[in-house]
Specification:
- The protein has a single domain, classed as Beta Polymerase, domain 2 (2-Layer Sandwich).
- Helices cover 37% and strands 24% of the residues.
- The protein is built from four helices and five strands.
- It has a five-stranded mixed β-sheet with strand order 1-2-5-4-3.
- A hairpin with a 6-residue loop joins strand 3 and strand 4.
- The radius of gyration is 13 Å and the shape is globular.
- It is found in: Cytoplasm.
- Its main location: cytoplasm.
- Belongs to the Iojap/RsfS family.
- This is Ribosomal silencing factor RsfS.
Length: 114
């Protein structure tokens, strides 16, 4: 799947379960492993798990391989690895603490949800 279509599909899956503050970061110049990181927040561990699960399910339905998921047990931060796109779904306090947007170059997001 084309990168822009994949990012849009992930955003749709996150919006289906009411993710908050969805940010898309272009990390293609910072890492040879990924082209984009998508970061979103959920209000509770249950919502974080549901958001990540919905992304995985929707991507599989579209024929996108989900390489791995991490963090489902506790639901504070769940990562979904889609190859060239990695999705981080976090509770707000965890997201603020780790500040991935700043960690990945202090950049402003290159695109936001529609």
């Amino acid at each position: 799947m084309e990168l822009d279509a994949l990012k849009a599909a992930v955003i749709d899956a996150l919006e289906d379960i009411k993710a908050k503050d969805i940010q898309v970061l272009d990390v293609s110049k910072l890492s040879p492993l990924w082209d984009a990181l998508i970061v979103a927040s959920g209000d509770s561990n249950r919502q974080v798990k549901a958001l990540a699960n919905n992304v995985a399910v929707k991507m599989k339905e579209l024929g996108v391989e989900v390489l791995s998921t991490e963090g489902e047990k506790y639901g504070e931060w769940v990562l979904v690895d889609l190859g060239n796109v990695v999705v981080h779904v976090m509770q707000p306090a965890v997201r603020q603490y780790y500040s991935l947007e700043q960690l990945w170059g202090g950049q402003k997001p290159v695109s936001t949800p529609r």
